[in-house]
Amino acid sequence: MDLNSLIIYRNILNDDVISAFCKIFESDANPYFLEADFFGKLIKKAESLKLDGNIFAKYVLHLVLNDENPFSIACECKKITTHKSLYKLALNDAQIIYELINFDFDKILKGNILQFLNVNYLPIEAQLSSQLFSDILYSRNAHELQKFLVEYYLEFGCGQIGANKMLKYSADKKIVGIKNYDEIKFDDIVAYKYQKEQIINNTKAFLLGADAHNMLLVGSRGTGKSSCVKALADMFFNDGLRILELSKDQLNDIFEILNILDNRGQKFIIFLDDLSYEQFETSYKYLKSILEGGIEKKPKNVLFYATSNRRHILSEKWSDKNIQYEDEELHGTDSVNEKLSLSDRFGLTITFGKPTPDEYIEMVLKMAEKENLNLPEHELVKRAREWELNQKGLSGRTARQFINQIILERNLEN
Fold first, then answer.
1. How far apart are CA 74 and CA 72, in angstroms?
2. b/e map of 275-296 (b: 16 or more CB within 10 Å)?
3. Residue 358: Cβ within 10 Å count
4. Largest Cα span, the chain
5. Going along 174-239, which residue ranges are E strands?
6. How far apart (Å, rounded) are the C-alpha atoms in residues 257 and 329?
7. C-beta separation of 96 from 3 below 8 A
8. Distance CA 232, CA 223 (A)
9. Three-class secondary structure of residue 234 per DSSP
10. CA 104/CA 118 separation, integer angstroms
11. Which residue, 18, 154, 179, 404, is the most exposed by fewest CB within 10 angstroms?
């Protein structure tokens, strides 16, 4: 086994654990120190990733499954076939990976460390593996390993984009996963049945390859607009949907971002939360150009979903409607049309109004049931109404904050 012969999966050589593993064989330093260094780094990864059993084999497989390389991306995009050169090159690497996964540590290690590297490691918290993961792990040879890898990339994708439901654009201009995001399901969002159906149906059409709309979700604050978009991440993850959240400032890089997404096998909703622009801001023009009318077309695997408290996104003033004579645009209508043109380019606008008092109470009761609060219903309703009057008015957010207050009081009592 010569890890330096890896071609397609060469990225894994940069990993700390693999590097420490290689040093055991390549260095003349104290072997006990090198073994301990390797094992210490592996343990940190195992606990972080919740790996159990043969943690070295599982960690190597984790690196392989998440590696973004020409082969894994081609599989993800359904462009790989067995007679292509890329497949044959990857098969050579698969032989090395197979040997690495099945490495016999009896050859180099003795004593207590050995038992933890075989099948006996128990992390503080273990994570269940999928059947396909197990199939890859226990492949009988390199050819079978390669076959299962192709199946995995086809189903789940690769890298940060393949592994995560929610994504963000980092400061170093890479798309990375959001591990701890606000996970929510549509059943958690009380009321707004029509709005939820519109959002779900539009997204289903997008995933099926049919025509679908870029969507603008507008309405009162705290009514569940953002929650509806986040709920899509859980509902359609296995159908290949990923949610990429961008800030409006990151729209300056929108063409670079779209170029990355265009070359991937998943479908993406670019999520612009709480979108609004003031008079002096001009970066909305990048978004206008992409949504409709620009020279560069939006990729077929990308849609834009935006939420805003402003129906027309851009701030509007009374002076836009009144005729002024000094320091104003000569053609006032042109100014108004410019401000309306961004919201007009979203094919579907969905409005979220404030919940009724009864819907607010329904939200409170459902959240209380989910949190296993044992307060009598009449007391819960009475306190929820008082909370709403003293806080921020009727909304799902107000209901959530009220439940959080009840939980806080309960914890203080205990």
1. 5
2. bbbeeeeeebebbebbbeeeee
3. 9
4. 89
5. 175-177, 215-219
6. 35
7. yes
8. 16
9. helix
10. 9
11. 179
Which of 291, 294, 297 lies closest to 275, judged by CA? 291
Residue owning tokens 């159990």: 52
> How far apart are the C-alpha atoms of 272 and 407, rounded to whole Å?
31
What type of residue sits at position 85?
Answer: S
Phi, psi of 395 (to 5 degrees): -170, 165
Distances from the Cα of 42 to the Cα of 50, 136, 177, 211, angstroms: 12, 20, 22, 47
- Tell me the three state secondary structure of residue 110: coil
- The β-bridge relationship of strands 166-169 and 175-177 is antiparallel
Q: Which two tokens stand for residue 391?
A: 């806080």
End-to-end distance of the chain based on CA atoms, in angstroms?
A: 58
89 contact partners, CB below 8 Å, separation of at least 6: 7, 8, 71
Phi, psi of 337 (to 5 degrees): -60, -35
DSSP string, 262-331: HTSSSEEEEEETT--B-TT--THHHHHHHHTT-SSPPPTTEEEEEEESSTTSB---GGGTS---SSS-S-
Token pair of 111 as six digits:
């004593």
CA distance 218 to 305: 11
> Residue holding tokens 């789940």?
156
3-class DSSP state of 95: helix
User: What amino acid is encoded at 339 in this protein?
Assistant: K
pTM: 0.82
CA-closest candidate to residue 202, choices 173, 166, 232, 161: 232
Residue type, 318: W
Q: Per-residue pLDDT for the chain (414 aa), expressed as one digit of tens each?
A: 689 999 999 999 999 999 999 988 887 766 778 888 888 999 999 999 988 888 899 999 999 999 999 999 999 999 887 778 999 999 999 999 999 999 888 766 655 565 566 557 777 877 777 788 899 999 999 999 999 999 999 988 999 999 899 999 999 999 999 988 888 899 888 889 999 999 999 999 999 999 999 999 998 888 889 999 999 999 999 999 999 999 988 988 998 999 999 999 999 999 999 887 766 566 667 777 777 655 457 899 999 999 987 765 665 554 555 555 455 554 445 444 555 567 778 889 999 988 889 989 999 999 899 888 888 999 999 999 999 988 878 888 899 999 999 999 888 887
